[in-house]
Design a protein that fits this description.
- The chain contains 1 helix and 15 strands; from the N terminus they run E-E-E-E-E-E-E-H-E-E-E-E-E-E-E-E.
- It has about 230 residues and is mostly beta strands.
- It folds into 2 domains: about 120 residues, no CATH class; about 70 residues, Immunoglobulin-like (Sandwich), CATH 2.60.40.1930.
- The strands form 3 sheets. It has an 8-stranded antiparallel sheet with strand order 7-6-5-4-3-2-1-8.
- The longest helix has 4 residues.
- It comes from Chryseobacterium contaminans.
- This is Por secretion system C-terminal sorting domain-containing protein.
- Keywords: Signal.
Length: about 230
């Protein structure tokens, strides 16, 4: 990977429990998705994710080709987003973002609203416009969600009902939804799909969940609900 590729990055998530999708940093990348696939587990039981294919064939916003990796750094107790040095080996990769969320017991990395993904400006020269947030990026799939104690964004006229729910949740008051996701109490992604005002939750086990809606403007809305 050429150094220029490393000036910013993009994450996105998918419905699969083994992939992460990232989209962001549009100042340097085109508005496109990078798909990370789980490639293994390290010695500390942390998952390892890499963009595919790792063959210098992933287009990167007209800047060339990009190859990325998300993995745990046990020495520094943090998750890292890395760019390959150019050989597809990640022997001496470039550190693009890092996240020391504190919730490090899980085998999956934090999303863009769990802890803080910090831009490593010594590599990016600040071209990614700062740390990752739900407002400037989308990061979904096999990632940690927000803790239940986090302050929720104001919903205004948006409502979900019924709550508690047995089979289907209805969402009203939103017309620009893009992605809808459901996380369990441990922050694990359970369900991810294209936004629809009716969500089937009949297969969930009883308990407390978070329903997260990401809008087309990259705003994030979160709602707690109880599955009966």
């Amino acid at each position: 990977m050429k150094y220029l590729y490393l000036l910013c990055l993009v994450f996105t998530g998918s419905a699969s429990a083994q992939t992460i999708t990232f989209n962001g940093c549009h100042n340097l990348f085109e508005n496109q998705n990078f798909i990370f696939n789980k490639t293994g587990v390290d010695a500390f039981n942390k998952n390892i994710y890499m963009t595919t294919p790792i063959n210098d064939q992933q287009p990167c916003g007209g800047l060339g080709n990009c190859e990325f990796k998300i993995q745990w750094n046990n020495a520094l107790t943090r998750w890292e987003f890395l760019g390959d040095e150019g050989n597809g080996t990640f022997t001496t990769p470039f550190l693009i973002y890092y996240n020391a969320t504190g919730n490090n017991s899980l085998s999956i990395p934090p999303g863009n609203n769990a802890g803080t993904w910090i831009e490593n400006t010594s590599i990016t020269n600040g071209q990614c416009s700062g740390n990752l947030t739900p407002g400037n990026s989308i990061m979904t799939g096999d990632v940690q969600g927000p803790a239940l104690g986090i302050q929720e964004i104001s919903k205004d006229k948006i409502q979900i009902f019924p709550n508690p729910v047995s089979d289907f949740i209805q969402v009203s008051g939103i017309s620009e939804g893009q992605i809808i996701q459901i996380y369990n109490i441990d922050g694990r992604l359970i369900k991810s799909e294209i936004f629809a005002p009716k969500v089937n939750v009949s297969q969930l086990t009883p308990g407390v969940y978070i329903l997260k809606i990401t809008t087309k403007a990259f705003n994030s809305l979160e709602f707690k609900f109880v599955k009966k």
